[in-house]
Amino acid sequence: MNTYLTVILIYFVFIILVSLFTRKIASRSAADFLVAGRNLGLVACAVVVASEWLGGMSTIGVSEKAFLNGTMQPVLYNISTAAGMIIIGFTVARYYREKNVHTVSEMLVNLFGRQAGSVSAAAFLVAYITLSYVQLQTCASVLGPLFGISWINSVLISSIIITAYTYVGGMHALAVTGIIHVIAMFAGTGIALFVGLDKMSGFGELSTRLVELGSPENWYNPFSGGISYALSLVLGGVLGGMAGQASIQPIFAARNIKTAKNAAILSV
Q: If you write DSSP's letter for every residue of 20-85 in order, what string do you get?
């Protein structure tokens, strides 16, 4: 077994063990399972919010799209989600937290009634089925080539592992694993940068390749792919950050209103 496979297997096993260690806490009550007993501190809450957005789509997906299309426009998605979290911090974070709700749909029920909650729940179901597909596809694109298995088997393995540590440990497990994911992602991205530049013989060769793929001016023009595409990235990022259950859940779990507000801003 090569080094890459060993590292990945150890990482997966470690993540599952973390969820097992938090199982006792998560099983005490629904609040402990869903919102970690509403006891996340500032740093933990901010890192967990960040980890929800620093996934396969915002890292590998955005980078690949920018490289293949010869434009930096896809990075607007990351900028927009960051802007969305800042807006949350200065506007609705306090209300999310002070209502002591568990989901965004529950918050909408408090504001607009049960019908609004039902509609939002249906919309979230569609959105997160799509998001799950994107995230699992990212996992499969990594696991498949490394283990020499089919795409469908890679998806099944990824979904089982992710579901296992989420179901067993609840929000406590997501908080701990989220912190681990962020550390691993930044470390991995840094290592990948140096390895990639070494294989491409430095920035000079990389710059040459980028020019071959697209016009040099496109790399510094966020609207080079068209205004409509740029607007879709901006609106999707800002509104997704403001209403997405994944980014809001840690705010529900914040220790108090002040922590919820500052964590949303700090997560950027």
A: HHTHHHHTS-HHHHHHGGG-B-HHHHHHHHHHHHSSTIIIIIHHHHHHHHT-SGGGHHHHHHHHHH
- Let me know: does 244 contact 87? Beta carbons within 8 Å: no
Separation between Cα atoms, residue 229 and residue 240, nearest integer Å: 16
Q: Dihedral of CA 141/142/144/145: which sign?
A: positive
Contact (CB, 8 A) for 238 and 81: yes
Instruction: List pLDDT tens digits, range 134-155.
Output: 777 777 777 777 777 787 888 8
Sign of CA dihedral 243, 245, 250, 251: positive
Q: DSSP state, 219?
A: G
Structure tokens at 87: 């807006």
Distance between CA atoms of residues 254 and 189, nearest Å: 28
Per-chain mean pLDDT for the chain? 77
pTM listed for this prediction: 0.71
Distances from the Cα of 232 to the Cαs of 57, 67, 224, 238, 242, in angstroms?
Answer: 15, 19, 14, 10, 15
Tens of pLDDT along 61-120? 777 777 777 677 778 878 888 888 888 888 888 888 888 887 778 888 887 888 887 888
Cα atoms found within 13 Å of the Cα of residue 101, Cβ hemisphere only: 18
As a whole number of angstroms, the distance between CA 88 and CA 260 comes to: 9
76 touches 234 (CB < 8 A): yes
Q: List Cα–Cα distances, 170 to 41, 105, 106, 165, 216, in angstroms.
A: 17, 19, 18, 8, 47
Contact at 8 Å (CB) between 200 and 206? yes
